[in-house]
Amino acid sequence: MEIDGTMVGDYYDRLDELYEQTGGDHIHHGYWDPDRPDVNRVSAADTLVERVVTVGGVPAGGRVLDAGCGVGGTAVFLADRLDCAVDGITISARQIERAERKAADAGVGDRTRFRLVDAENTDYPDGTFDAVVALESCEAMPDKRRFLAECHRVLRPGGRLVVATWCRARTDLGVDDENLLAKVRQDFYLADVLPLPDYARICADVGFADVWSEDWTENVRRTWSVADPANNRDNPGYLAKLVRSGGLDFVRFAESWRRMKQCYDRDVIRYGVFGGIHAERGETRG
User: Which secondary-structure segment (H or E) carries 84?
Assistant: First the structure.
């Protein structure tokens, strides 16, 4: 099945409520520190945003593009914690509604703006932003090179890119693992999933300097165990609520969750973070 933007937008229009009920304000992985293994899923998701922002060097008070902003959790964090002015873009109209509501509730509606825009082809002038953040949206982009080139275009000289994304573990997967990955791509409407080193090479190709990457797989893999949407023994009414709100979509959602856990267990998918600088001569990451 060939994935396009309309399919991805429709997917999140249908399932955002299920994602939020499972993971709170953030529809992405959690990050668990080795010395704090027992934090809950929502706290771990907050920690992941904090770490992405820190390792990416997103500047306080800067103008930031949140590319693939989901329901606004990251944008609200940036506006609230770092006093950034944030443009969040998505191809899901329902996500915009939810993001605007969350920003208003958090008191940062004046520092956030959410727009229905394709991240591969935005209407921003060159050099608009101090940073571009893409948290688990790159895997859904049909053309990774075009997306990263667009990130480079809208950054000012010295601007920072940081991307967290699902990655293929390696290029030489066996037949069974390739079939599993194909099912997950269908489940989550992923156009393609590349190995982490490929993303770093593309970043350099489109003009980023001081490109870096980190593998966070071991810190995020618990996401698919602690928040299984069909297995919450602490809240007996939780499953019934999800079934009522999601119907057949919930059944498919729960099955796709299990397949993602299999991907981590079998080292089919890994979790990568990478970035770079739209650098002037002599500028380095730090």
Answer: none
Q: What 3-state DSSP class applies to 95?
A: helix
- Residue showing tokens 């809950």: 40
Q: Among 230, 219, 226, 227, which residue's Cα sits nearest to residue 270?
A: 219
Across-strand partners of 67? 89
pTM: 0.85
SS3 104: helix
Write down the CATH number for the domain with range 5-275: 3.40.50.150
Surface-to-core class of residue 174, CB atoms within 10 Å of its CB (0-12 exposed, 13-18 middle, 19+ buried): exposed
pLDDT (tens digit per residue) in 191-235: 889 999 999 999 999 999 999 999 999 999 998 887 555 455 444
User: Cα-flanking dihedrals φ and ψ of residue 163, to 5°?
Assistant: -130, 130
Closest CA to 270 of 171, 165, 132, 174: 165
Q: CA 228 to CA 61: how far, in whole Å?
A: 37
Q: Quick: pLDDT tens for 245-272.
A: 545 555 677 788 889 999 999 999 999 9
Rounding to the nearest 10 degrees, give the CA dihedral for residues 212, 184, 87, 152: 40
Question: Which sequence spans correspond to the domains of the chain?
Answer: 5-275
Query: Tokens in use for 214?
Result: 């980190």
Q: Are 177 and 268 in contact (CB under 8 A)?
A: yes
Give the span between the Cα atoms of 109 and 99, in whole angstroms: 10
